[in-house]
Specification:
Shape: rod-shaped
Helix content: 55-70%
Largest sheet: 6 strands, antiparallel
Number of strands: 13
Radius of gyration: 54 Å
Order of helices and strands: HHHHHHHEEHHHHEEEHHEHEEHEEHHEEE
Strand order of the largest sheet: 2-1-5-4-3-13
Structural class: alpha+beta
């Protein structure tokens, strides 16, 4: 097949771009035939043997030039066009020597005429007219015609050849135009074919990549066994069910995908925790969805990170403590397609937390009794008039008492955090003056601030802000914030406590000019026993319970707490308390 293709290409080059020798061949053959006829016919009419021989010689000379140009692969240019022009003159000489105007070889002029006229450009038509006139009038130079009609034949002949040349020139132009259009079309199709091939290769590569990603996803999906990952449509019907869901909830994928709605695994009491979510849900939810689930999906539709601790019900009817996160599932164009629920079994975590809190509570209770006894007997030693202490003994007892009270405060904090974690956090609310609480907390912290060389200020509005709150607990929260601010502020710094009223809330803040907290650690400040690296680096004493206790007090009052800090500049903690009480039922990220 490849040999045939190469042959076809050779023939196409031969005809599409012929060499000067190929173009000259018809003229050469015709003149050689004329020469043979002259030689073999004794009675052939010759008017001038010299002119006939000269004409044949001229054509043979142009043939030799065509051979040379073909060998050198010169196919275009004026040198090539000289060949047919000279051929016309040679045929004119041959015509002159073989009868002049009545010569049998007059029509041979058409061969070089076609060659010249086929060249691009109208100027070649004029060349044809000029040189055919010369060739046809050559006999009249040696033997002028006797009448006007004979002269007209010498004029009309070139006009006919010029007309033929014009026709050939136009046909050649149209042919070249068609060839150019065909070549352009072939080039465009070739380019389109190349682009299609490239696209096919790209699609194949993308398909291979997609298959690799799909295999990786399937492997990852099958490997998630510690968490139940469930995908639902907008109506809450399950569309994906991973091995973790099989292990935790007890249904096989075939059973879960058989038109099961996800609220089957959430008791009504668990779904009720979502009633604080936005009430308005986007269009597309099934009207029969439980209210809690509808509001849960509505919160996810607003692109909130929904997270909650609740109980889930397995296929066998047992209840499992779990942590649930819900996100909206959207396609590439952003259209909602459903929801993705991730359920983590918290059974072990809940048990560990319970045991830890029981242990902390037990140890704290066991420590309170001996510490209280130690402090009591120290008081007896200090105040026994029968056996007064020496100066050194008084100093030693003072150190012992101070450290015993520190231990007792720590035990109290541990007991408090255990109460918070167990949900047994008591509040004794009453009408309280928040400004007075801030003034009292600042007054209590002032001696500490003076010892550390820190300026302590309170910015309290003239108007009294009253709130239904546990004054003791709010005071404890303020004491913790002021104590922390003083501990983390270098000598010569400033700590400011503020109170202001907002729209339905009261805002308390404690700001300092201290060492600050790294930005990446600020999210962990309210975790039990956490201490910022800036605190450990500067050897600031503490166990990391103060902020945990403060936040628990604020949340118990239905408030919120946040912080802003910059290393080397300072820190500000802000407490927001609602004037109307409310409760927190759901954590939204």
């Amino acid at each position: 097949m490849s040999e045939l293709t190469a042959t076809e290409k050779g023939w196409r080059r031969f005809f599409d771009d012929p060499s000067p020798l190929v173009k000259q061949a018809p003229t050469t053959i015709a003149v050689l035939v004329a020469a043979v006829l002259i030689a073999i016919i004794p009675s052939f009419p010759l008017t001038s043997v010299a002119a006939a021989i000269a004409g044949i010689a001229v054509v043979m000379a142009t043939t030799a030039l065509a051979v040379v140009l073909s060998i050198r692969h010169v196919h275009e240019g004026w040198v090539v066009l000289l060949i047919p022009i000279i051929d016309i003159l040679g045929i004119g000489l041959l015509r002159t020597g073989t009868g002049g105007a009545s010569s049998l070889f007059s029509s041979l002029v058409l061969l070089p005429v076609v060659w010249i006229a086929a060249a691009p450009g109208i100027r070649h038509v004029f060349i044809v007219a000029i040189f055919t006139s010369i060739a046809l009038l050559m006999p009249y130079l040696t033997s002028p015609p006797p009448d006007t009609v004979s002269w007209l034949r010498g004029v009309i002949g070139p006009l006919v050849f010029a007309a033929v040349g014009a026709l050939v020139n136009e046909l050649s132009r149209q042919q070249r135009l068609r060839i150019a259009q065909a070549e352009r079309l072939v080039a465009e199709r070739t380019e389109a074919l190349a682009e299609n091939l490239a696209m096919v290769e790209q699609l194949r590569a993308s398909e291979a990549q997609y298959r690799t990603l799909l295999d990786s996803f399937q492997s990852l999906w099958q490997s998630i066994t510690a968490q139940a990952v469930i995908a639902t449509d907008l109506d809450g019907k399950i569309v994906e069910w991973n091995p973790g869901a099989v292990r935790l909830l007890g249904l096989t994928p075939a059973e879960a995908l058989a038109d099961v709605r996800v609220d089957r695994f959430f008791p009504a009491s668990s779904l009720s925790t979502f009633e604080d979510c936005p009430a308005t849900a986007p269009a597309g939810h099934a009207p029969g969805l439980p209210e809690g689930l509808r509001r849960l999906f509505a919160a996810a539709d607003t692109d909130q990170f929904v997270e909650a601790d609740l109980d889930v019900r397995t296929a066998g009817g047992s209840s499992v403590p779990a942590r649930l996160t819900v996100t909206a599932h959207r396609d590439g164009s952003g259209v909602r397609r459903g929801y993705l629920l991730v359920i983590t079994d918290e059974t072990k975590a809940v048990e560990v937390a319970r045991m830890k809190d029981e242990f902390v509570g037990m140890i704290s209770h066991e420590l309170r009794t001996p510490l209280s006894a130690i402090i009591g007997f120290l008081d007896l030693l200090q105040n026994d008039p029968g056996q007064p202490l020496t100066a050194d003994q008084t100093e030693f007892v003072t150190v012992i008492e101070r450290n015993a009270k520190r231990l007792l405060n720590l035990v109290g904090d541990l007991l408090f955090t255990a109460q918070v974690e167990s949900g047994r956090f008591p509040l004794e609310k009453a009408d309280a003056d928040i400004g007075a609480l801030v003034v009292s907390a600042v007054a209590s912290a002032r001696p500490h601030a003076q010892r550390e060389g820190i300026e302590l200020a309170a910015e309290i509005p003239v108007d009294s802000f009253r709130l239904d709150a546990d004054a003791g607990r709010i005071g404890q929260a303020l004491d913790n914030l002021l104590s922390n601010a003083i501990k983390f502020t270098p000598r010569g710094g400033r700590v400011t406590a503020r109170v202001e009223r907002g729209d339905g809330v009261i805002r308390l803040s404690v700001a300092d000019t201290g060492i600050g907290i790294p930005e990446d650690e600020q999210g962990m400040l309210f975790t039990r026993f956490f201490r910022a690296s800036s605190a450990t680096r500067n050897a600031v004493p503490g166990v990391g319970l103060g902020l945990t206790i403060t936040r628990a007090i604020v949340l118990a009052h239905g408030g919120s707490m946040d912080v802003s800090s910059q290393e080397g500049v300072g820190t500000e903690f802000r407490i927001t308390l609602p004037l109307a009480p409310r409760t927190e039922a759901l954590r939204l990220g």
